[in-house]
Amino acid sequence: MVKFPSVIHAYCPFCRKHTKHDVNEVKGKARRALSKGQRRAKRHKKGYGNKGKYSKRAITQTKMASKTSKKVDLRLKCSDCGKMHPRSYPRTRKFELVKLT
Ligand SMILES: [Zn+2]
Predict the structure, then answer these.
(1) Which range marks the domain in which residue 68 is found?
(2) In the chain, at which end, N or C, are there fewer CB atoms within 10 A of the end residue's CB?
(3) Which residues of 49-84 are buried (b: 16+ CB within 10 A; e: fewer)?
(4) Cα 60 to ligand 1 centroid, rounded to whole Å
(5) Which tens digit of pLDDT belongs to each residue from 13-62?
């Protein structure tokens, strides 16, 4: 479990100096409904026969599915100019923003 402060002092590329930043964690963006790849997969899954690379087994065997941790997507909001910029955080299983008093 990683505990990360919800307010940090960080460099703002817009102000070009270190300012206070509010930290927000971005959780999985909703995907576009039925993109091209999704439509193709849906077509292959219909009916009988080998589902090939669209089968459940093939999907669970891929590298991404076998990983138990995720990279953390953070957005820092500058308290000076109010603009946001991203920051990445390395792979962790559990991540939590903590308010420091
Ligand atoms: Zn700023």
Answers:
(1) 1-28+56-101
(2) C
(3) eebeeeeeeeeeeeeeeeeeeeebbbebbbeeeeee
(4) 43
(5) 999 999 999 999 988 776 677 888 888 888 888 888 777 888 877 877 77
